[in-house]
Amino acid sequence: MARSSTRGTGAFLRGVGAASWTERLVLALGMAAAVLLVAAELTPLYAIDVAGASCDVVAEPALRDQCVTTGGNAHSYGFLLLALLALAMTFGAAFGGSAPAGAALCTLGVVVLAISLGRDLPAARSTGEIGVQFLQANASIAVGLWFELAAGLLAIAAGVVRLRWRRPREERA
Known about the structure:
With about 170 residues, the chain is an alpha+beta fold. Helices cover about 65% and strands about 10% of the residues. Strands 1, 2, 3 and 4 form a 4-stranded antiparallel β-sheet that branches.
């Protein structure tokens, strides 16, 4: 005997279907930011090549760990916590109409951009110890850094949408 449930995936999908365009937009932007934050931790931020060859081939064993740096290596997987926070704030901003959650998404996006531009981008342009040993070493930005930047911008956009287009108080009750 099948019973209708007010909880679970079906209720969530019904809630999304009944959501306004701003709620759907906040949900889409915030969830995309969270997914990109996870992807940034699992993909390379930057890589070092030596004279057109793979760094792994020419560098001595002690330096091979520095040839490719993933987001997880660079942040100790801290962006995974930010992704969880982004999801929580996204649901609060989208379905609860919470202005503080929207502001938190903006703040989270600024933090991600500050880390990406202030720490990861300069590191992505440096060859470090490998550059000392190999003058022809070249550092290049990888997809993970772009994921970080996109995630930060999407989180800010989700927050701005929530803060700019709020439902009237009587509709929220």
